[in-house]
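Hey, quick one: can you model this chain's 3D structure?
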Amino acid sequence: MKILILKTKELGNYLPILENMNEINDFTFKGMHRVFIAKEGNEVVGFAALQCCHGYYVFRACVVSKKFRGQGIQKKLIKSRLRYLKNINVNRVSTLVLTNNIYSLNNLISCGFVFNKGQEVIDGITYLKLIRKIGN
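Sure thing. Here's the predicted structure for all 136 residues.
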């Protein structure tokens, strides 16, 4: 498994593939700091996005192709984003997870994320707020 780390403007031929895989309504790659693309051979099997807003970093969409789920790819994408942030001296990252997305929630917690100030409701949808310190 190989993970590519690209700026949004570098997505090029990957963009239609990622948009086709995307299962998240109203997610856009525009404005993402980096996009992490998981490949098995020549096949794109998943992606994850990282957003930076006013110096605060947020894990955004993480999607794994249905036929590759259950193989630890999401966890690899989480760890890859954490390593990237550590290398650029970021000390914390946050994310939102749908309350019923148990697989993502478990993967994030197993990678050191903890609950942060309860829940957030966006457009009538409830999300759990998580945060993780990076480095020391």
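One thing worth noting: The radius of gyration is 14 Å.
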